Amino acid sequence: MAVTELDKQMKALKKDLDRLQADFGRLTNDGGKAARQASSTAHEASASALAKLEEEATRLVDGLKGAGQSVVEGGEDVVAGVHEKMQERPLIVAAAALGVGLVVGMVIARKR
Questions:
Q1: Domain ranges in the chain?
Q2: How far apart are CA 38 and CA 45, in angstroms?
Q3: CA geometry: angle at 108 spanning 102 and 112, to 5°?
Q4: pLDDT by residue for the chain (112 residues), tens digit each?
């Protein structure tokens, strides 16, 4: 009688163990699917973020090119204006250059 009861408990334990193994197998499959799905989602999100970053970088570079071109054009206008004034009043330009040279020379002489 004790042997029969022990056999029943062993069979019950074996059934429980078989169920646990099956459950573990299903969990492993589900976990693998979830990991693949998470990886796929992360890959899509990073690709989308990279595309947005590239678009923004292109937009900023284009804006900087436009700003640089505006600065160059403005600088050319200033140089042309100064050149024109120098041709209109050469004596004033020479006097101003002499004055600036004199001031720079005095500053350098004081430092020695």
A1: 2-80
A2: 10
A3: 140
A4: 566 877 788 888 888 888 888 888 787 777 778 778 888 888 888 888 888 888 998 998 888 888 888 888 888 888 888 888 888 888 888 888 899 899 999 999 988 7
